[in-house]
Each structure stands twice: as C-alpha cells, then as structure tokens.
Amino acid sequence: MKSGPLDCEVRMAPVKLNHVKPLPDCDPEIGRQLWALEEVRRRTLDLVKGVGQATLDWEGSDGHDNAIGSLLYHIALVEAEWTFVDILGQDLPASVQVDLPYPAEDAAEKLTRVLGVGLDQHRKRLDLSRRLLLDEVRPMSLDEWRRPRYPAGRTDRQATPEWIVFHLIEHEAGHAFQISMVLARARRAGVSR
C-alpha cells in the first residue's frame, strides 16, 4: 500500500492537568484551602525570584509607591497577626516580634516602609508566618475550623479560621498583583532587576 501525505503518525503533546491537591495531614476540606494558600505563596515567590535590592526598595518614579520589600513584609506580618490575634486570640508573641519588629502601618496609616532588607530575609519571614499558620490550622477538626472566635482584645467582630484562610488567600493574591505591577514599572523605569 502506498503512503500519502496524510499517512503520518500524530503525536500529542502531554496534557498538563491543573487540579487542587489537598495538603496532607489535615481534613481534605481544610487541605484544599491550604493548597490554595500555598499556591498563592508559590506565585508570590516566583514573582520575586532573582529580584535585586534596588528593585526590592524601589518606591516608584515619584517615591510614593509601596516597595516590593515593604509589601513582602506586610504579607508576612498580616499572616502572623491573623494567626495569633484572630485564630488564637492572643497578642503576637515576643519570639515572633523579633522577626516581625515593625508595625503594619506608619502614623499616616500607610504601609510601613521596609527598605534595605534582602530577599532572603523576606523569604525567611514569609516562611515563618506560613509555618506558624499551618501549625495551627492543619490539626483542626472541621468543627474547630468553622468555630467563630473573637480577636484578642475585641468584641466587635468574629471570624472563623476557614474565613481567615480565605481572606489571607485574597490578601496575598492582591499584593502579588501589586508586586507584578511594581516590577513592570521598575523595568520600564530602567531599575535593574
């Protein structure tokens, strides 16, 4: 039999499967949200991989933007504060304050400027805040995961760990977008990566 131009072997590229894989060592429902939390962190860290100090500290061409380093610090601090203040109902312990010494905002209610801190130190803070959160929520039962609690020293609102993790996913995703925009503007302004 004669071969023609249509008699060829078709090779399909492997198909990439995007799916949620619950984190192990916890209830699968909790694990799915924790997977999303980890996925957002992976994306944040991928964005800043290889970023140099000049880019970490760049506050926009007019000097009024939040620097990437300030945003990374803010992400870590907010995660630690929600873990301790809102889930555990206690102040941030002194042992954690050593690594997160600055307040979230300055007197003008703008994010605290965290400049001159290298990417490795920011990664360590992000790793610490994530470990603290996962250590608290992974062993929870679904009932505990959904139990409302008051933040330390407050009686005007409550939140469940389930909602807090959702909020932290949303919070970090928003700041990751902000980081990507700062990176793009810094690149256009000629700031070395």
Summary of the model, kept short:
With 193 residues, the protein is mainly alpha-helical. Helices cover 53% and strands 0% of the residues.
List the helices and strands and how they pair.
Layout: H1 28-48, H2 53-57, H3 68-88, H4 94-97, H5 119-137, H6 142-145, H7 161-188
Helix pairs in contact: 1-5, 1-7, 3-5, 3-7
Structural features, described:
This protein has 193 residues and is mainly alpha-helical. The protein has one domain: Four Helix Bundle (Hemerythrin (Met), subunit A), CATH 1.20.120. The protein contains 7 helices and no strands. It has helices spanning 28-48, 53-57, 68-88, 94-97, 119-137, 142-145, 161-188. The longest helix is centred in the last third of the chain and has 28 residues, at 161-188. It is flat, with a radius of gyration of 21 Å.
